[in-house]
Amino acid sequence: MKRTFDLILLISTFPFWGGIVLLCYIFNVLFEGFPGFYSSKRYIGHGKSISILKFRVMLKNIDKKLNRSTVAIDNQIFFNLPVDIEIYTSFGLILERFGITELPQFFSVLKGDMSIVGARPLPDNVFSKLNEKFPNLANNRFESKCGLTGLPQMVGRDRLSDEERLFLESSYANWANTKYSFLVDFKILFFTIFIVLGLKKKASINDVLLMLE
User: Fold this and answer.
1) Which of 73, 76, 88, 203 is 20 to 30 Å apart from 67, CA to CA?
2) How far apart are CA 203 and CA 207, in angstroms?
3) Which of the pair, 161 or 68, is modelled with greater confidence?
4) Do the beta carbons of residue 120 and residue 141 sit within 8 Å?
5) Quick one: three-class SS letters along the chain?
6) Domains in the chain: how many in total?
7) Are 105 and 52 in contact (CB under 8 A)?
8) 111: containing domain
């Protein structure tokens, strides 16, 4: 049912999100130059990695200077760069502000490598560190397909500790395998959109867990 929900939603809305991807790619290239996209290898669980596509929102080759291996983050394994440091392009900041950066990954959803809702795919080095510290939670988050958005995005990733984020992702994966409802995925998706647009306040951990009951 989860795969059916993903396909029906994406195919029926393709003219809308496909048009946004095309226009944003064109503007990104016009304003910031090639490449408009960038591809990154990410781990999606069970020994499998895929290349995911995103809009390039940062300065060229900045990932060689700023990444999980070069930036020290105390007591935090998940790697979220703040938007107020000078690494983003001008148009990239607009894409980030409206949550458009991840939209090209809808093609991975259509292909079947990802779902719309689920835990985010991870760089191999981030997963390795999480697996060392939280082996059960780190692996359980992959029991449902990785996605573009999920419970942590509703709460705010920067407001969560590594353990809290893994717990939310593992709770969702368990729910998706036992009592999945497309209505909940629908709510998570649109609540995320409303939060990104500033039309809804971020939820609490308890609020998002109640959605799974």
Assistant:
1) 203
2) 6
3) 161
4) no
5) CHHHHHHHHHHHCHHHHHHHHHHHHHHHHHHHCCCCEEEEEEEEECCEEEEEEEECCECCCHHHCCCCCCCCCCCCCCCCCCCCCCCECHHHHHHHHCCCCCHHHHHHHHHCCCEEECCCCECHHHHHHHHHHCHHHHHHCCCCCCEEECHHHHHCHHHCCHHHHHHHHHHHHHHHHHCCCHHHHHHHHHHHHHHHCCCCCCCCHHHHHHCCC
6) 1
7) yes
8) 2-210
What is the gyration radius of the CA atoms in the chain, in angstroms? 17
Q: Are 137 and 163 in contact (CB under 8 A)?
A: yes
Distance CA 212, CA 63 (A): 36
Note if the pTM is more than 0.90: yes
Tokens 């994966």, residue located: 173
Report how many helices (DSSP H) and strands (DSSP E) the chain contains, helices first. 10, 4
Contact 141, 177 (CB under 8 A): no
The single-letter code of the amino acid at 36 is: G
Q: How far apart are CA 202 and CA 138, in angstroms?
A: 24
129 to each of 64, 65, 104, 135, how far by Cα in Å?
20, 20, 27, 9
- What number is the average pLDDT over the span 77-84? 70
CA 161 and chain centroid, separation: 17
DSSP summary character for residue 143: S
> β-strand 115-117 against 147-149: which pairing, if any?
parallel
Q: Which of 63, 114, 53, 125 is nearest to 88 (CA)?
A: 63
- d(Cα 137, Cα 164) in Å, to the nearest integer? 10
